[in-house]
């Protein structure tokens, strides 16, 4: 019985040590691909252009909004699509039918 126990213990130690060595092995990194020539994208035209029609109109429309960044985002989307923004900070959507009729995926008004 003692011989069987000693043999099993020895086998577990030998097998265990081989798994330990495998777990500490460093992974081999794949060979890097040749690098493509570096190209710098041209600057976007909006980066240096003066504020656009939509920026001015949406800034005025959203100046009293509770969540100003969200208001500016959606107003900008609507302004680019519709080419108009209603006057004032709220309401007056009848001035711009496209702006008034845009809805999100839930059927709620998209434009602030």
Describe this structure in words.
Belongs to the GASA family. It comes from Gossypium arboreum. Residues 30-45 have a biased composition (Pro residues). Keywords: Gibberellin signaling pathway, Signal. With 112 residues, this protein is mainly alpha-helical. It has a domain at 51-101. 49% of the residues lie in helices and 0% in strands. The protein has five helices and no strands. It has helices at 2-23, 45-48, 53-61, 68-82, 97-101. The protein is elongated.
Largest sheet: none
Q: Tell me what portion of residues adopts beta-strand conformation.
A: under 5%
Mean pLDDT metric = 79
- Low-pLDDT stretches: none
Alpha-carbon Rg, integer? 33 Å
- DSSP strand count: 0
Give the helix level as a range of percent.
Answer: 40-55%
Distance between the termini: 84 Å
What is the global morphology? Answer: elongated
Structural class: mainly alpha
Question: What is the number of helices?
Answer: 5
Topology order in helix (H) and strand (E) letters? HHHHH
Topology of this structure?
Elements lengths: L1 H22 L21 H4 L4 H9 L6 H15 L14 H5 L11
Helix pairs in contact: 3-4
Characteristics of this structure?
mainly alpha; 0% strand; GASA; 5 helices; 112 residues; signal; Peamaclein-like; gibberellin signaling pathway
Tell me briefly what this model is:
Belongs to the GASA family. By secondary structure, the chain is mostly helical.
